[in-house]
Amino acid sequence: MVDLTTFVPDAPGHLVAINGTDPRHGPWEHVAFVPSPLPVLPPDLSARTYRAVADSRAALAALDSTARRLPNPRIFRRPALQAEAQSTSALEGTYAPLSEVLTADEERPPNADLREVLNYVRMADAAFGWIEEGRPLNVSMLEELQAVLVRGTHGESRESGSLRGHQVVIGRRKDAPPDALPIHAARFVPSPPGLDLRANLQDLLDWMADKRVLQEIDPVVAAALAHYQFETLHPFHDGNGRIGRLLIVAHLLTQEVLLEPTLAVSPWFEARRSEYYDHLLAVSTTGAWDAFVRFFATGLESSANTTHERMKALVDAQESMKERIRHSTLRADTAHALVDFAISRSAFTVRAVEKSLGISYGRANGLVGQLVQLGVLAPLGAPSGSFGRRFYAPEAFAVLVNWQ
Fold it and tell me: What Gene3D superfamilies does the record tag this protein with (predicted)?
């Protein structure tokens, strides 16, 4: 059973009675934790935590400043999403090497794990596109994103694309007997399903857009609080962690802390997985906002610094490749556009170049071949003469594969 003594009176929520029936063990009774609505004012935070928040804001500002100075910062979006997809999926137990994620055929992923990782990229593309259109997030939109995330994976079920209709549990206590029911052995039992869950999720999304909150709470602190709330509600049968971490970047975008969704937050949290989950649980049981917000802000600072360094390294690789072109006899403008495309798409076909650059297939094929001769591009996998052959930029790939 969940240790009820760990939930202190100041915990930001309350316990509710739940019950059900197990096919093997019959009826059961337990309790679930329902978080209280988030406050309009920030929680009490220490000076140490506010320093961490300030450091986080400075790192995010430096990243954003660099992005705003670039002629086309959008080309760095997809590489960042691929790195985030790999790590955020690893946090949920789905592992695929980043090199395979970067080079996978998105239309025909070779295995289920890669399909699941690439689904995250599709989901994030959709979410960030909606934000750019100025559409406010609502529950139906999150349901649509969740359907994209689990499509064609082991997580797909009749509940895909809708809030969960059954009780779920998170983790397993180390002291739980081997034969204990999952509900009794759980480390944490989130909100029960039903109309209240849907209403509480919509309340969270409304809170994230509330002008009073935006005036009173620093965006980094607000992102931390919103992340906790989403993970604690645990509204879907699968994909909660990945959607929750996506919402971190989404919130920073809507508050114009970031221009482009180039921030990859999950590599840092993945490296501290146990501590991450411990902090989330401690907020529920003891209201330990201060430690969690400090941990969260430190993660954003480190993630922003890492992303910033990778972005600068990609800019250097981009300039190096274009310098080779300038010293050749190639027509620079189209060749430079292909370099930009090769950074935004780490593996691609000639047909994709034709479509992206708006040139004929023959010209695209010739241009790719010329950049291969210059050493700017290289064939990937299949023999260079085969139909559907794919290419990549080795100099950019070397930066991307070490993103984490």
Answer: Fido-like domain
